[in-house]
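Example for tutorial group B:
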């Protein structure tokens, strides 16, 4: 205490150590040596307990950052090398029970990997060739060979470390306000204490010793240490808990904003839905291009895109024995809100939604069977100005998406859908969710999403945007809290967002909001308790008699209580994974085992399918609950031409007791 007090004095700053030294010196001056000893004992003991509590809190952060093993084994030679010496493209061996040392792709073997340290998911994830694995995750029960995709210092867990460190250094609005006030508050308290000790005796007041003791109590009681600690300790614990949950929150400001959210806007593809598209139908329009050439051109161009639809088209072409050649594509570019463009074999090709039809110079008839499709995304191919191809995708909603939206609704938070997809696809998603969304907005450009997020902020209050694509980046930046789907999402979305989900579990969204609200309550309790304790001691000193050791106990005790109360946040969010996760884990595990059996013996795999009923997920009563559309659900699709000049965007306005029964020219037709 003495050395720290002298160090603070040399910096011309006033802290708790100087105030305690003044209190001890005052007690000695009053010849109350026992009280001086009690002050030193209480302060030292409380400081030790506070340090112990803070060390325990930060131990979780240390364990989070030490997940990467220091060594790795090269698959080809068996040589043990330092992880930091492994280059991109090297193949490493990861045996059962070992931690994955570097981000990469499985090239050989099958296993289950525990990713809870990174994503917060409590169930193992099956891995097979072409599956991605991340540094810091645990290989459970098989051998896998992994080709590295990044250096150790650029791994996902290293980025987590960097983001968490930046978040710790980023102060919230409340903390900045308290720090600013404390800068002037402490010197003012010292001046006030000196005034209480000197002015009454100078003015002829009796009992100078009592006034001197009261001044010492005032100095100690008015020390703002507990108030200064009230915010940063709670913020630190909440940020650590969020990271353990698989949610990276980029600062105290974002954490406070999470607790204020009143509306959430969801992107559809890859956020509400799985983003795992399958091509249901592919037709050539007219007779200008053969199917094989068309698939070759499209797959080559789409190979240069990271969109989930692009991956589905490439996979479809490969299923037809056509290999894409992205190196043959020239002038590739992304058309936000439309699709992509590329040149190959001298052909100028556009691939995208119906907006790309405007790129064509002629109007071809779309196959009749496309007109009756519902709940799918329809794409078009323009080659040298002519419509030459049309195709359809299907994509299902994520498990837990409807539950997440219902949880948000139970917290008084409204949910809306913002998608660049068709009105039919938006309504289909709403039906899969059991009518949980309050509004649907479809066929949107990126600037439309920005406009609608701004309108939602003005109407409902603090707004969150959840998305995963490059098109979502402007809307994520506009929202009060932008949340990106980190591992599966685009780098642009992760960079511009305020928080990142490390897993695809959308149930983390209401959990993050709940954590933000709990953190705000904890900070408020910390502030009120620290002020109330000091006010009580001061009132006791004025009304009865000043007791210096009681003031010290109140000060250091309040600091300790603030730390302990903040540490309760470390247990937030645990134990929230229920039966649905167990069902999903069982389904994934059975599916992987079945594929392993099929590789060895097709007959054994067929018997396994018969025993489990063909599809484990369908036999699970938890993961497939029938849901009834609530009366207040909204599914009216209105053309957005009324709101802006572009006739291609569509939006849904809230309404009551209305259900969609069909669609007309991309707009849903309501029926009362």
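The residue assignment follows.
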């Amino acid at each position: 205490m003495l050395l720290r007090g002298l160090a603070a004095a040399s910096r011309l700053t006033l802290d708790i150590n100087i105030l305690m030294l003044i209190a001890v010196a005052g007690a000695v001056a009053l010849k109350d040596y026992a009280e001086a000893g009690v002050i030193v004992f209480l302060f030292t003991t409380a400081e030790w307990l506070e340090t112990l509590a803070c060390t325990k809190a930060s131990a979780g952060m240390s364990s989070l950052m030490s997940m990467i093993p220091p060594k790795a084994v090269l698959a080809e030679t068996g040589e043990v090398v330092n992880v930091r010496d492994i280059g991109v493209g090297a193949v490493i061996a990861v045996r059962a029970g070992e931690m994955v040392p570097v981000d990469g792709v499985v090239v050989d073997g099958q296993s289950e990997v525990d990713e809870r340290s990174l994503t917060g998911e409590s169930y193992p994830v099956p891995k097979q060739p072409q599956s991605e694995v991340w540094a810091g995750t645990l290989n459970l029960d098989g051998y896998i060979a992994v080709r590295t995709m990044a250096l150790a210092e650029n791994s996902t867990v290293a980025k987590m470390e960097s983001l968490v460190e930046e978040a710790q250094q980023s102060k919230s609005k409340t903390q900045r306000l308290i720090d600013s006030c404390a800068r002037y508050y402490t010197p003012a308290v010292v001046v006030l204490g000196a005034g209480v000790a000197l002015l009454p005796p100078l003015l002829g007041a009796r009992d100078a010793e009592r006034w001197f003791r009261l001044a010492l109590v005032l100095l100690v009681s008015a020390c703002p240490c507990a108030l200064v600690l009230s915010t940063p300790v709670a913020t630190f614990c909440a940020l650590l808990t969020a990271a353990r949950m698989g949610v990276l929150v980029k600062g105290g400001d974002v954490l406070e904003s999470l607790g204020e959210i009143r509306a959430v806007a969801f992107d559809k593809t890859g956020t509400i839905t799985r983003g795992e598209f399958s091509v249901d139908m592919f037709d050539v329009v007219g007779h200008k291009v053969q199917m094989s050439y068309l698939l070759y051109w499209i797959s080559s161009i789409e190979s240069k895109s990271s969109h989930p639809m692009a991956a589905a088209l490439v996979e479809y072409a490969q299923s037809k024995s056509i290999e894409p050649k992205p190196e043959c594509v020239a002038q590739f570019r992304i058309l936000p809100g439309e699709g992509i463009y590329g040149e190959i074999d001298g052909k100028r090709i556009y691939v995208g939604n119906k907006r790309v039809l405007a790129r064509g110079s002629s109007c071809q008839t779309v196959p009749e069977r496309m007109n009756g499709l519902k709940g799918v995304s329809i794409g078009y191919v323009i080659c040298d100005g002519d419509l030459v191809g049309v195709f359809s995708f299907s994509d299902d909603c994520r498990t837990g998406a409807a539950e997440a939206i219902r949880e948000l609704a139970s917290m008084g938070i409204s949910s809306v859908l913002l998608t660049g997809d068709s009105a039919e696809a938006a309504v289909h998603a709403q039906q899969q969710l059991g009518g949980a969304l309050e509004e649907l907005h479809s066929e949107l450009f990126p600037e439309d999403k920005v406009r609608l997020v701004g309108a939602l902020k003005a109407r409902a209050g603090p707004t969150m945007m959840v998305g995963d694509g490059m098109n979502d980046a402007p809307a994520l930046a506009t929202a009060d809290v932008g949340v990106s789907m980190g591992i599966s999402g685009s780098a642009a979305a992760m960079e511009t967002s305020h928080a990142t989900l490390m897993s695809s579990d959308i149930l983390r969204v209401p959990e993050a909001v709940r954590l933000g609200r709990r953190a705000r309550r904890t900070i408020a309790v910390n502030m009120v308790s620290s002020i109330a304790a000091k006010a009580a001691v001061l009132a006791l000193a004025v009304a009865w008699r000043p007791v210096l050791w009681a003031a010290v106990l109140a000060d250091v005790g309040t600091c300790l209580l603030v730390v302990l109360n903040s540490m309760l946040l470390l247990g937030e969010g645990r134990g929230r994974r229920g039966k649905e996760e167990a069902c999903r884990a069982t389904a994934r595990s059975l599916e992987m085992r079945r594929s392993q059996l099929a590789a060895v013996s097709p007959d054994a795999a067929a018997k396994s399918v018969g025993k489990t009923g063909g599809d484990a997920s369908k036999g699970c009563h938890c993961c497939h609950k029938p849901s009834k559309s609530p009366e207040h659900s909204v599914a009216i699709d209105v053309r957005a031409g009324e709101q802006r000049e572009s006739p291609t965007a569509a939006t849904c306005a809230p309404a009551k007791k209305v259900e969609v029964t069909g669609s007309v020219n991309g707009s849903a037709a309501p029926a009362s």
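The first helix runs from residue 2 to 10. Compare this with the pattern of hydrophobic and polar residues in the output above.
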